[in-house]
Each structure stands twice: as structure tokens, then as C-alpha cells.
Design brief:
The protein has helices at residues 2-11, 25-36, 41-54, 58-70, 85-90, 110-117, 121-128, 141-145, 189-197, 209-221, 257-266; strands at 72-78, 94-100, 233-234, 237-238. By secondary structure, the chain is mainly alpha-helical. A hairpin with a 2-residue loop joins strand 3 and strand 4. The longest helix has 14 residues, at 41-54.
């Protein structure tokens, strides 16, 4: 896996911009092939060291490379040594330890961790969140693992509020999009499909991406509200909704929820 770590570091991570100046994906692939063609592990280590020396932020490169294998991680330790961590997790027969990505039995001394990571995971966790909860008691590693509290803040996570239309009715997730924050061309197809479907617009006839974007912009211009979630579901699961309008001069009786179901069953419609 060290090979993968090196390749990912060359391409760039959340913590490290991609490799050498002017080095794009193709150059990274070329260098990676050179690295794989090294005769042994010692030659590969020298190749990585030489690459890091050329990097604009050598210290960040080395720290990021170290992080891939030794980043802090919650480890599932089975109560029974004869079962796997996965089965122990599924049966809820385990404890949690704070270790690193290399797994059990790969503990590193504090001096090396502080030098390479820049902090001591366990100390940092307790320093940032010495107490939490209503009883002001220290949160356990199990609490953090089960996300009763977020290890980043030490606080319980807030639930994501359900999206609602202007009438206060719950709509399907993704029905409400902010095109001021992320413009239409930058939304993936699936998000735009959901946006249209939630407004009763059929998507089967949409020919291509440009047609899809034009349709979304047109519907957005009409300021059509999203339909409530309950009309988007049928007995067979998700269905694309259609909006029906009465002919001119005719009227309809609008029923909701259970009243609509009763009307259908009674044969009135």
C-alpha cells in the first residue's frame, strides 16, 4: 500500500497540493511507473526521498505521506480473540482503542508521532474535549466512535433539518437547490433531475445535458414550488409525478392525504 500512498501524494490531497510545478496527472503517472520499476524497496525509498526534496513544501509532503499510514484511527477490538473486528462490531461485542491506520500492534512512540504528525492524537483529543455531555463527564472513545459526540468538536451532532417548501410541507431531499450558491451548470445530472421531478416535470424526454440545463433554468424562472414528499411516492416506491390541470371552465375537488385515498377507494374518481 505504500505505492498507493506515494501516488496519492503526487496527485494531491486535501492537505497537500499536487506535486511538482507543472506536474499534472500524466507526469505523475510517468513518475509512478519509474517508481514501480525500481529494483527493490531501498531504491523506492530513495526515489520517494528524492521526489520529496524537489517538492515546494517538503515538510508537508513528508507529513502527508506519513499520515496515510499512521493517521489516528479508532480501532475495533473484539472481546473474543477468535472473531473478526467486523463480526465483533455486528454483534456489539467489542471495545474501542485509539490507534493508527496501520492497525493493532503498530503503535508508535509519542516522540515520533509528535514529530511526524505535529500532535499527539490521544492528548489532543482530551485537551480539546476534557468533558462533555449533560453530566459533565469525559466522553469515552466509544462515544466518539458511535458519533454520540463528534471528535472534532466534542459536541453532539445536530440533525439535518428536512427540506420544506413554501407551504411548510416536507419535500424530497435535494428538491430545493440554491443556484445562487452553485450555478446550474455546476450541478450533476442527478441533482437537476431531482429538482425537476420534485416540481412535476417529466425527465424522460430530456435529450442531453444542454437540454437539461435549459429546462431547469426555465422552471426556475417560473418560481415553481417543490411538491410535498407524500405525492412523490407510490405503492411501488419512487415515481415521477405529473401535474394535471382541469380544462378551461371545469373545476376539481382537491383532496389530500387520507381523504384522497378514501375518494379513490370509493370509486368517486
Amino acid at each position: 500500500v505504500d505505492d498507493l500512498y506515494f501516488f496519492c501524494n503526487m496527485l494531491g490531497t486535501d492537505y497537500l497540493r499536487h506535486g511538482l510545478p507543472g506536474s499534472g496527472e500524466q507526469d505523475c503517472l510517468r513518475r509512478f511507473v519509474e517508481y514501480l520499476n525500481c529494483s527493490d524497496d531501498i531504491e523506492r525509498e530513495l526515489y520517494v526521498a528524492n521526489y520529496a526534496n524537489q517538492h515546494a513544501t517538503q515538510d508537508k509532503f513528508n507529513k502527508s505521506f506519513f499520515f496515510w499510514k499512521n493517521a489516528p484511527a479508532f480501532l475495533v477490538i473484539p472481546n473474543d480473540d477468535n472473531i473478526s473486528p467486523r463480526n465483533a462490531f455486528l454483534s456489539n461485542e467489542y471495545t474501542i482503542q485509539l490507534g493508527n491506520m496501520s492497525g493493532v500492534g503498530c503503535a508508535l512512540d509519542d516522540e515520533l508521532l509528535e514529530e511526524r504528525l505535529g500532535f499527539l492524537p490521544h492528548t489532543e483529543l482530551r485537551h480539546n474535549h476534557p468533558t462533555t455531555g449533560t453530566d459533565n463527564a469525559p466522553a469515552s472513545l466509544l462515544d466518539f466512535f458511535e458519533i454520540k459526540y463528534w471528535s472534532r468538536t466534542g459536541k453532539a451532532l445536530d440533525q439535518i433539518a428536512k427540506q420544506q417548501n413554501s407551504q411548510g410541507e416536507v419535500v424530497v431531499d435535494g428538491a430545493l437547490l440554491s443556484f445562487d450558491f452553485v450555478t446550474v451548470p455546476h450541478h450533476p445530472d442527478r441533482c437537476l433531475h431531482t429538482y425537476l421531478s420534485a416540481r412535476g416535470v417529466g425527465i424522460d424526454s430530456i435529450e442531453d445535458r444542454s437540454h437539461l440545463e435549459a429546462m431547469v433554468l426555465e422552471i426556475h424562472g417560473y418560481n415553481i414550488d417543490a411538491l410535498p414528499k407524500y405525492v412523490m411516492c407510490g405503492g411501488g416506491g419512487y415515481v415521477t409525478n405529473r401535474i394535471f390541470k382541469p380544462n378551461e371552465g371545469e373545476s376539481i375537488m382537491w383532496k389530500r392525504g387520507g381523504d384522497a385515498v378514501d375518494a379513490i377507494r370509493s370509486g368517486e374518481v
